């Protein structure tokens, strides 16, 4: 994660737990984050009163405050709030474009206050407990639905993330914290894949096991889109180093089969999907290296895929 600025799209998120919100917000937004945290209780109270919501329990949260709420009509909702620096604008745009197809519905938003009111997926369990092939099939199916959405104005193109590789290679001339050859390979692939994409779509940007929840309106609904545009193969990368608590060696072993399954369901070229998976895994560790130790999980997967990637 970067020490200041918006949430980095390639970063591996922390496992939510007590104190996680404070740590991630202050690390990411510094003094602006502390100011926001100090006013958070008043913000939530004001929003629930303004929107006629009945507040419920705190839900898992890392970069944003997330509360279960009951809507005026009695239906379940989620109130989400974050530092109002514009980083949630792309999520709002993506959810509007999805319009409930494959993802939770956006019911209300106020970008200036960094606040969203969302449909709550019930029962809300994620994909972590499913057999791997079944979980991968659900993610692939959700991506197929989400990629049909119109591309709205606002979301950045994934080409902009090339800058992270450039900065990493400038800052770290050797093989610590990441093998330089691996980063150079991923950087070159990123440029090539963006320049040669056969089509571009609205990307979720972070679809993995914890961001697909069991629901009633549809069997599974996506949450927390980062909102990017570009090659659909990019969205096949985040699943490869998830779930968060899985053994890195096991994730590395599963990666080739996951890539093959995703490419088949999404009708993507398997070599390009493999290349995207490798590059996204390296990007995740590049983001981590910006202001802390690398996670190592995505690196293990990248190393497993590297020999299979065609230049």
UniProtKB/TrEMBL annotation:
GO terms for biological process: secondary metabolic process. It comes from the Bacteria. Keywords: Kinase, Transferase. Pfam families: APH_6_hur. One of its GO terms (molecular function) is kinase activity. This is Aminoglycoside/hydroxyurea antibiotic resistance kinase. It comes from Pseudonocardia autotrophica.
């Amino acid at each position: 994660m970067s020490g200041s600025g918006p949430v980095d799209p390639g970063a591996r998120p922390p496992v939510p737990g007590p104190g996680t919100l404070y740590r991630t917000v202050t690390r990411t937004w510094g003094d602006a984050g502390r100011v926001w945290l100090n006013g958070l209780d008043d913000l939530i109270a004001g929003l629930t009163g303004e929107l006629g919501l009945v507040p419920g329990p705190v839900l898992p949260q890392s970069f944003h405050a997330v509360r279960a709420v009951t809507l005026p009509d009695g239906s379940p909702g989620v109130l989400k709030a974050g530092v109002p620096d514009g980083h949630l604008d792309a999520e709002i745009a993506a959810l509007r474009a999805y319009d409930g197809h494959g993802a939770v519905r956006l019911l209300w938003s106020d970008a200036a206050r960094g606040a969203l009111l969302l449909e709550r997926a019930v029962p809300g369990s994620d994909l972590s407990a499913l057999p791997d092939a079944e979980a991968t099939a659900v993610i692939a199916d959700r991506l197929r639905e989400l990629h049909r959405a119109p591309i709205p104005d606002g979301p950045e193109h994934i080409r902009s993330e090339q800058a992270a590789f450039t900065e990493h290679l400038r800052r770290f001339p050797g093989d610590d914290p990441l093998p330089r050859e691996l980063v150079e390979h991923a950087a070159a692939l990123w440029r090539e894949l963006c320049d040669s994409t056969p089509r571009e779509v609205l990307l979720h940007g972070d679809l993995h096991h914890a961001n697909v929840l069991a629901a009633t309106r549809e069997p599974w609904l996506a949450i927390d889109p980062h909102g990017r545009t570009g090659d659909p193969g990019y969205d096949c990368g985040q699943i490869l180093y998830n779930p968060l608590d899985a053994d890195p060696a096991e994730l590395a072993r599963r990666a080739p089969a996951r890539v093959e399954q995703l490419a088949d369901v999404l009708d993507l070229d398997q070599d390009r999907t493999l290349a995207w998976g490798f590059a996204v895994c390296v990007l995740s560790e590049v983001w981590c290296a910006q202001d802390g130790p690398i996670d190592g999980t995505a690196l293990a997967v990248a190393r497993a895929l590297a020999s299979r990637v065609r230049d």
